[in-house]
Write a structure and sequence with these properties.
With about 750 residues, the chain is α/β, with parallel strands linked by helices. Helix 12 packs parallel to helix 13. The longest helix has about 35 residues. The radius of gyration is 28 Å and the shape is globular. The termini are far apart.
Length: about 750
């Protein structure tokens, strides 16, 4: 096996792979076609986000292992994009749906544009890998070896490893036999081999398929101190090297490596009367045999094998890509996590304790004193977990109600709920079974909770429940007090370390009453009722935000200073965009911090010249949703679980929470201002869809918002740690005796 050649030019993979069916050309934007002028396409906007992430892998100011991690993130992102978004578009195309989206594109046109854009993205991934990352990794002793580089000792070691660890596990599957084509698992590396008889070459050739199971390690370390501190070989290389062991008296004439993605856009029918858990199990099984949506074939594969791969994968509608290097770049997550290379990694950023909670103090006591706002991961997520663990053990707590959308693999949250249920507390948990890619785990978690005695609700019919809320009922002094946690992120201790989110802890009676009414609505099928403080999608959340945007526009038209700052992951909802356009036309200063998809076009004269859109890509994934409206100097600030997307506002159960506490409100405003001041990791969206890196003017201080939050949190924690137990008088400074 030879070493992969450097990545070709962006056009080369497109030239080598089969041409997709011709799509209708997209009409250029004209003055007579206002729809296409007003909105970006959602899918292309998402690809632009992944391109921004990829450029972090090329940022030479970052250590090489951090850049390798960003490369892996783009590969993982692209997998999900194909399985969900491209899969959905392909279904629409196959069903003959030609409806245009808000940008004016049909599903067929979108698929064609996606194919072109992804081809260029792949070329850029491997250009960065081959020309930047791999050479630098090799300089530091992190080396992937190939067949021609193996010493005799390494070859013998790998053959022994293969015979013991790989040969007994893999099962070759002959393709040219009567019967159905074999099921090929998605996202796993497979090899198709062309086998011929050693004794009689006139015998027909046959194709044999190998699929490398997900539980087989991708990287195999080679014991060779002289070669470098971390020398490895990919498992697919080892399989190719010793494939002949499966075929005595035969010869492996050729082989090709490939990988498929399948359409996961198969939804559960929760409108039927069938048990939802059973329905979800059926859907998960169906996804295993769903249509192939993408085929990745390592560049240079023999044509007959490439054709056979397309046939066995049923690729009539699949997008096929020639990959100029190793498949599945998610492997660089493992490379980035190698131990013993601290100098090649970014400096650690430490989370800090919540200053509002005294060391050793009950979280209940701290909340009684004052509402608490936490900014994760700069502040630990532990207070939220601790609150639930205290509630599970507290004899005065009588009931716990919670929404679970995504949880950690080994979740303290789940353990606390199980403990609470087993101790006789009334525990009600809405487990959202329709949380994509977490369905199987949520089914298992729900069963564990039911076995412990918890009352389980499987979401809401026809909607996904995406709200982040915890309600604890506690007896105090003969009365019942409600403690609430509202968040912008999931109850997941793992992602809380790498996603930026907001938590709000309160025992304010108004919030508690609304939280109780919310749970009654979603778990008891009660008729929706008006809340005092909260807003809920799909009943009123959209209207609440639209009213605030309109109110700000009205104030601008009356000559008042009007301003809107919004932070979210995605902005796609047409009603919201149109309202923001009208506010901009009225003179409202609008700043939007949108991490990913943004279908709004900023900077168009007469439409959106007062709107600035900023995207920040940094070490942590920006995930918080914060909404600010100036309101004549008496600002309204809210946090929520929803992005401004049609699915969130119309097809999900979401919550919007106004922040009443003045200290918390000021802190949220400061968070927004810091993001908009970022001139290091921010990118400004242009009216033509390009994102330009924000740059500080000469003499202007460089600001990196995430680093600012880390530094400020550490500074506050240090000041608290230095706080004396006794009062120390401040004395006048003594003048120096020397001149």
């Amino acid at each position: 096996m030879s070493r992969p050649t450097p990545a070709p030019s962006p056009a080369s993979p497109q030239e080598r792979r089969p041409r997709p069916a011709a799509a209708k050309k997209v009409a250029p934007t004209t003055e007579a076609d206002p729809v296409e002028q007003r909105f970006f396409n959602r899918e292309l906007s998402w690809l632009a986000f992944n391109e921004r992430v990829l450029e972090e892998a090329a940022r030479t100011t970052l250590p090489v292992l951090e850049r390798a991690k960003f490369l892996a993130i783009t590969a993982s992102n692209l997998d999900e994009f194909f399985m969900v978004r491209v899969g959905g578009l392909q279904l629409m195309k196959d069903q003959g749906i030609r409806t245009r989206d808000d940008s004016g594109l049909t599903p067929n046109q979108q698929l064609d544009l996606i194919s072109r854009r992804v081809t260029a993205l792949i070329a850029r991934q491997y250009e960065i890998l081959h020309e930047q990352l791999l050479p630098e990794l090799r300089q530091h002793g992190i080396r992937r070896l190939f067949e021609g580089e193996l010493t005799p000792a390494q070859h013998s070691y790998l053959e022994e490893y293969f015979l013991e660890q790989i040969y007994p596990i893999l099962s070759p599957v002959a393709l040219n036999v009567i019967g159905a084509a074999p099921a090929i698992p998605a996202l796993q590396i497979a090899l198709l081999a062309n086998i011929i008889s050693e004794a009689n070459e006139d015998e027909p050739q046959r194709h044999v398929l190998f699929v490398i199971p997900a539980n087989v390690p991708r990287l195999i370390a080679l014991p060779d101190a002289e070669a470098g501190p971390s020398v490895y070989i990919n498992v697919e290389d080892v399989l190719a090297l010793f494939l002949h062991h499966y075929f005595p008296a035969e010869r492996v004439k050729a082989l090709a490596r490939f990988r498929i993605s399948q359409n996961t856009d198969i939804a559960v029918d929760d409108e039927s009367d069938a048990d939802l858990a059973t329905e979800m199990a059926v859907v998960l099984e169906a996804r295993r045999s769903s249509p192939t949506i993408r085929i990745e074939i390592e560049d240079g594969a023999p044509r007959d094998l490439a054709r056979a791969i397309r046939e066995v994968c049923g690729s009539r509608s699949a997008q096929v890509y020639a990959i100029p290097g190793e498949l599945d770049l998610r492997v660089y997550f493992s490379i980035a996590a190698l131990e013993g290379f601290d100098e090649l990694k970014v400096e650690s950023w430490e989370s800090q304790p919540a200053l509002a909670i005294e060391p050793g103090e009950s979280v209940f006591t701290a909340i009684q004193r004052k509402d608490i706002l936490l900014h994760h991961p700069y502040t630990y997520f532990d207070p939220v977990v601790q609150l639930l663990e205290e509630a599970a053990a507290d004899p005065d707590v009588v009931a716990i109600k919670q929404i679970l959308y995504r949880t950690a693999k080994h979740s303290r949250i789940i353990s606390a709920l199980i403990k609470a249920a087993e101790s006789g507390k009334h525990v009600t948990v809405l487990v959202e079974l329709k949380a994509r890619f977490d369905e199987a785990r949520n089914l298992d978690r729900a069963e564990d909770l039911m076995n412990a005695g918890a009352q389980i609700i499987y979401g809401v019919r026809g909607l996904k429940t995406h709200a982040k809320v915890l309600l604890i009922m506690r007896r105090e002094g003969g009365h019942m007090r409600r403690y609430c946690h509202f968040g912008t992120g999931n109850y997941n201790e793992g992602t809380a370390k790498i996603y930026t989110d907001i938590s709000y802890l309160t025992c304010n009676p108004d919030y508690g009453a609304d939280a109780s009414a919310f749970f009654n609505t979603v778990t008891g099928r009660s008729r929706f009722q008006h809340f005092e403080r909260l807003s809920m999608a799909p009943f009123g959340l959209r209207e609440r935000l639209l009213a605030l945007i309109t109110s700000e526009a009205d104030r601008a038209q009356q000559g008042e200073a009007a301003e809107i700052m919004l932070k979210m992951n995605s902005l796609e909802d047409r009603d919201m965009i149109e309202a923001l356009y009208k506010a901009s036309q009225a003179g409202v200063k609008i700043r939007l911090n949108v991490r990913g998809v943004c279908c709004l076009r900023p900077g168009i004269k007469g439409l959106s010249e007062n709107i600035r859109v900023v995207s920040i890509i940094d070490r942590y994934l920006e995930h918080a949703r914060i909404f600010y409206f100036k309101q004549s100097g008496t600002p309204i600030v809210l946090i929520g679980s929803a992005d401004l997307m049609r699915r969130n506002l119309s097809k999900r159960v979401e919550l919007l929470i106004p922040i009443d506490d003045s200290t918390a409100r000021k802190r949220l405003i400061a968070i927004l201002e810091t993001h908009f001041a970022d001139n290091t990791q921010a990118h400004d969206l242009q009216s033509d869809g390009r994102y330009l890196a924000a740059k500080s003017d000469d003499g202007v201080k460089a600001i990196r918002s995430q680093k600012t939050f880390v530094r400020d949190a550490a500074k506050r924690a240090k000041l608290r740690a230095q706080s004396p137990d006794t009062l120390v008088p401040l004395l006048p400074k003594q003048e120096s005796a020397t001149p």
